Amino acid sequence: MNKDNIRNAKTFDELLDIKYGKIGSKKRDNFEEKAQCFVISEILKEARKEANMTQK
């Protein structure tokens, strides 16, 4: 990963390609999976707050 490449990236997708590889690469797939898990956990956390529920 080169800092010049990062500076020259014009879109978020280009940044992801530089940092994690192209879509379909193992490193990128791993990143995408973790990102999805994070998003789902945040949605659940917000839904619990709105319903006044705790993790108990």
Silhouette? elongated
DSSP summary, beta strand count: 0
**Number of H/I helices:** 3
| Count of separate structural domains | 1
Mean pLDDT metric: 91
N-to-C order of helices and strands: HHH
Return residue spans where pLDDT drops below 50 for at least 5 consecutive residues: none
Radius of gyration, CA atoms, in whole angstroms:
16 Å
Distance between the termini: 43 Å
Percent range of helical residues = over 70%
**Main β-sheet, in a few words?**
none
Strand content: under 5%
Class by alpha and beta content: mainly alpha
Key terms:
3 helices; 56 residues
What does this structure look like?
This protein is mainly α and 56 residues long. The chain has one domain. The protein is elongated and about 45 Å long. The termini are far apart. The model has no long low-confidence stretch (mean pLDDT 91).
